[in-house]
Amino acid sequence: MFFKFTILHFFSRRLIRIWRTLLIIFLLPSSVFSSELQEGNIIHVVDGDTAYIKINKTIERVRFLGIDTPELHDKKNKPQCFGKEAKKELQRIGKGKNVFVQKDTIQPNRDAYGRLLRFVYLQQNDGSQGLLLNNELLKNGYAYRFAKYANKYTKLLTESEKLAQKEKRGLWSPRTCNGKRYK
């Protein structure tokens, strides 16, 4: 009798845990698990790959996935080559613009600094998804490809960086940085 009770107790507790997990999964908003687009507006540019974006009435600090722009100030408080230009370019093409942000299903939601990790697309006049800003900065030579983690656009971003290098655009130009972080 005791053995039968123990087995029933074990299975009933396990079944409760399974049901609880299923309820949590189905009751959470789908945006937690999906890579759906969310509308936003770039309200402030921090540097070439980070901006404050208003999303659903909340202002979020967003780090653009897949790219790494030169720092305005590194750990030694020394600016990296082309950092100011990268920031100015993001301000020019993005500040005040309506955008869509998209989570990558491979990457975590936030980085170690609490920034949302997102792909950022310009919103076209008709409300549809436009240019991928992450890629625009890269192919025009304002960023390096951030190769530490794979993402859904790894191939596209790799090709864009190669194109910028080949055509000596932006930070790849011998007149600017020649691809180096410091002059």
Output the keywords.
183 residues; alpha+beta; OB fold (Dihydrolipoamide Acetyltransferase, E2P); five-stranded mixed beta barrel; two-stranded antiparallel sheet; globular
In percent, how much strand structure appears in the residues? 15-25%
From the N-terminal CA to the C-terminal CA, the straight-line distance is 80 Å
- Count of beta strands: 8
Overall mean pLDDT stands at 86
Overall radius of gyration: 22 Å
Task: State the share of residues found in helices, binned by percent.
Answer: 25-40%
Strand arrangement across the biggest beta sheet: 1-2-3-6-5
The second-level CATH architecture of the largest domain is: Beta Barrel
Low-confidence stretches: 21-34
The CATH class label of the largest domain is: Mainly Beta
Outline type? globular
How many domains? 2
